Amino acid sequence: MIIPWIYTPVRGILAIWQQLTKTLEKKNGSLVSEILRSKIPEMANCSVLMREHSRVEETIQAMQQAGAGSLQVISDFDMTLTRFAHNGKRVPSTHNILNNRLLVNEDCTKKIKKLLNTYYPIEIDARRSVEEKVPLMVEWWIKVHELLIQQRIRKDLLSQAVKESSTMLRDGYKVFFDRLVEQRVPMLILSAGVGDVLEEVIRQNHVFHPNIHIISNYMDFDQTGVLQAFKGELIHIFNKGEGALSHAAGLRELQGRPNVLLLGDSLGDLAMAGGVSEPQNVLTVGFLNDQVDERKESYINSFDIVLVKDETMDVPNGILRYITSSGNNK
């Protein structure tokens, strides 16, 4: 039995401790409200960080009230829809899938790997500005594309190269893709990778549904099926909000859908919703895959929701399930 005159101070101390804990959690971007937790249990995952949980809650609620008919999904591909790593090994990007003996020789593989080791640290360097990075990213993409063109890659071997690769979509991907097509929600995939390879990855995972639209770097093959160039404007990690999105404006399926669920793994991906006409609610989800300590603050300050070293689609699936549930949309 607790003596009453002791109980009151103890209760006061517990209240102070609980408030202090909440304050620290909020400061670290990890506080999840009970309302969000009850509606979307996945939001309570330890991988989830948020700076303004109240804004996230309000945005999700507004999107839910508007229903699936007002929603579109805009997503990056490499390291967003695909896993970053599996069993401690990096999962190849669409460019790296082409580093296959079927398609390129050993010298080309070494050169592409050297370029990756040179430019990728620049891409994720939190100390460098976007203005510094852009010309270097363009330089990287052009050099890789030139190397691939020199290899005279055969179109008929792309499918086999994807099969032999260790690429993987994130756990729960099928639930995500299938839910979107069932609810007639269009998805725009905007990728700085290789569109031909990207399509093959989705196709081989049996989720290439009619609601999917892709803007990416596509190969231009000659009449014999040999790579001779890359088509159109170069899309790299930091120009997704510019000319590339002019293509998205012409997609009728995206018109009249002012609510956007945006998925990316780079700060450059935040510009992907730039082509949306008169957006009302945009919820951004960022996958923080690498150099967490160095980049966590900038991601929390930029994305609405940050998923730290989370190789699943659990949180996007939970959000999508709630927004599109027929029982919620009235």
UniProtKB/TrEMBL annotation:
GO molecular function: 5'-nucleotidase activity; magnesium ion binding; nucleotide binding
Keywords: Cytoplasm, Hydrolase, Magnesium, Metal-binding, Nucleotide metabolism, Nucleotide-binding
EC number of the protein: 3.1.3.5
EC category name: hydrolase
Bilayer-spanning residue ranges: none
Gene3D superfamilies for the chain: HAD superfamily/HAD-like, Pyrimidine 5'-nucleotidase (UMPH-1), N-terminal domain
Catalysed reaction equations from the record: CMP + H2O = cytidine + phosphate; N(7)-methyl-GMP + H2O = N(7)-methylguanosine + phosphate; a ribonucleoside 5'-phosphate + H2O = a ribonucleoside + phosphate
Superkingdom of origin organism: Eukaryota
Principal subcellular localization: cytoplasm
Entry's localization field: Cytoplasm
One Gene Ontology term from the biological process aspect of the record: nucleotide metabolic process
Record GO cellular component, one term: cytoplasm
PANTHER family reported in the protein's UniProt record: 5'-NUCLEOTIDASE, 7-METHYLGUANOSINE PHOSPHATE-SPECIFIC 5'-NUCLEOTIDASE
Subunit annotation: Monomer.
Family: Belongs to the pyrimidine 5'-nucleotidase family.
Function: Specifically hydrolyzes 7-methylguanosine monophosphate (m(7)GMP) to 7-methylguanosine and inorganic phosphate. The specific activity for m(7)GMP may protect cells against undesired salvage of m(7)GMP and its incorporation into nucleic acids. Also has weak activity for CMP. UMP and purine nucleotides are poor substrates.
Protein name in UniProt: 5'-nucleotidase
Organism of this sequence: Scophthalmus maximus
The organism's taxonomic lineage, starting at the top: Eukaryota, Metazoa, Chordata, Craniata, Vertebrata
